Every structure is written in C-alpha cells, then in structure tokens.
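Human:
Focus on the backbone:
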Amino acid sequence: MTELIKFLIYDEAPELLDLRRQVRAFIEEEKSAGRIKPGPYGWAEPSSDFSRALGRKGWIGMTWPREYGGHERSAIERFVVTEELLAAGAPVRAHWVADRQSGPLLLKFGTKAQREKFLPEIAKGECYFCIGMSEADSGSDLASIRMKATKVDGGWRVTGSKLWTSNAHRVHMMILFARTGPRGESRREGVSQFLVDLSWSGITVRPIINLAGEHDFNEVIFEDVFVPDDMVIGTIGNGWQQVTNELVYERSGPDRWMSTYHVLSGMTGKLKKFPSETRRDTVARLVARLWTMHQMSCSIAGMLENGITPHTEAALVKDLGTCFEQDIPEAARTLFPEELRSTFPENDPFNEALRYSTLYAPAYSIRGGTKEILRGIIAKGLELR
C-alpha cells in the first residue's frame, strides 16, 4: 500500500521562540490592564476590542498578501501565535472563523473584488464570519443539504435554514453552502458557496439555548433571500471541492485539541499540592499526547505553507484531538474526585474550568465532523475503502 500519511517534525527556530515570548508578553499586558480576564470559557469568549488589538499587532491574516491587509508571514508563525493565544485562554472567538477558514477560502476561490472588500476588514479584527454548513437531519452528512439557491436575474434566491450555527448572532457574514443544481449519483454535485451578509432582508437568526443554558448555537432561516452574483464564491457547482478545502483549516488547528488545555494546566498545578504516583503518571501521559498533537498540527501548518491540502492528515488530527480533549476532563474528575474538589477555595479556577469542560466535552466530537465521518475520510485516504 502506498504511504499516504506523512507528518514531519518541525524544530522551532530562535525567531519562533521569540515570537512566542512576544505573544506571552502581549497577553500579560492585556491582563494587567484589565482588558482581558481569562475564565472557564477560555478562547471561546468573544471580545471585539481584543480582536481589534490583535489586528493592530498584525496577528490576524498573518499569512495573507499585504495587498489584502495581510502580513505575508509563514503558516508556522501563525501556528505559534494561535497556540499561545489558545493556551492563554484569550477571548479570540469573535474573529476566529474569519481568520481560520473564511479568509483562506476567499484567497483560494474568491474574486479579487471579494478579497479587497472583506480580507482587510478581517485582518483588522473588524469583520466576523460564521459557518453556514450544517442543517437539520444532515449534521456531518453535508452532501444531504436541502438549502436551495435558485438562479434569478442578477443573482440567486435562497430558501431554507441552517442549524447549530455557532456565533451567528454576533457576526457580520456567513459563508453559505447551498444546493444550486441536481444532486447527481454522489450527491456531491450541484452545490455551491455564497457570501451572505446576515443583515440582509429575509434572514432570521433564532437562538438555540444549549444544555448548559447558554446561547451559542442558532438556527438561521432564509426566506426568499436575494444573493447577488458577485457574492458567489468560486464556481457554481464546485461547492464540494471548496467546502472540503475549507474543512481542512477547521479540523487541523490547535483549537481542535486545546479546548480543555486549561483543565490539563490546572491538573499540573494541583499535583504540587496533591502529589501521587497515579496522578503524576496520568498527567504525564496526557502531556505526552499534548506534545504529539502539537507536532502533528504543526506539521499540517507546514503542508499548508507548501500548498498541500492534507485532507486525510487533518481528519486524523481532528479525530485524535477530539479524543484527547474529552479524555482530559474525564481524567481530572477521576484524579481529583468531588470530595477533594469540594475542599478547594470558592470559585477555584480549576473547578470552574472542569465544570465548563465537563458540560461541553460531549460536543467536541461533533463540531467539524463526527468521529464516524472523520474515520471514513481516514479510511478512504489509506485506501482501506
């Protein structure tokens, strides 16, 4: 069988270590000034002020061309900044999707006018995007979408709804995945992508309150919404290739294995006060897995830097990362049982982080593709099916 999966080890050069120090110093300045207050939500907290501050530092759109507001830095440099922001629990949620995948999608498939309009605003931390993929009764089976876009004079009329759309109530734009033609035998034909301004007439964003009692998800309803032709991304009918390219960015980054990093960090701190061989062994194994995820994800950043679209490798990182993220709170509850945690100070950061992570951990294996979908992609990439 052909060797189809390759991960390379990247040793950090001195300039990358210096970049890490710069990000850490910036985070400490923001904390000292009271502009950010890391909490149990970690990086999932949005802050427009912080996003704009990152834009001024040149840490959004880092790899993009300067003509579009970018900074022409390497994918590895962006990886370093991303990792440090997530480790610090910085409130990056507002601009996250736009920087992670919407901008790169427009760079690869968008028109020059689309790039000129949206990319500089994203890079400044002032334009935010959400993902218009999932639908009711579709979930990770994107090929089964029913959202329909019909050609009319000067554009398209869109009718249908998107479900579980994170952050739609806070952002400006959506990249919409819709059906524009016949399904074909594979169901992957006849689909396209559009840029949609969520303030347009006919769009309703309805909140979905999750089991934690919080508003993050939304249903976004389109009722005869007109989308002009200049908002088509790429080529009509080429949506499947485009959306799978986009998902590589969503699945391979540190945000897919660092969601519970603050719990792991908290465990290492608690070990100093409550040492035991079992706790040391378990935490050490988790730290080793963290380092493995770091190396694999960094390797994918290098592939993207070299123009490679690593579908299989990205799916593997997402699958392993999901398991890792879910194992951390499970280990924390076992190593530090409720009887022990009840002795910790009131509002102890470790307890708060563990409570939040325990509530949200089941969802980690859904976002960006379920385990079943990801393992199907991996099996196909390995020529096992």
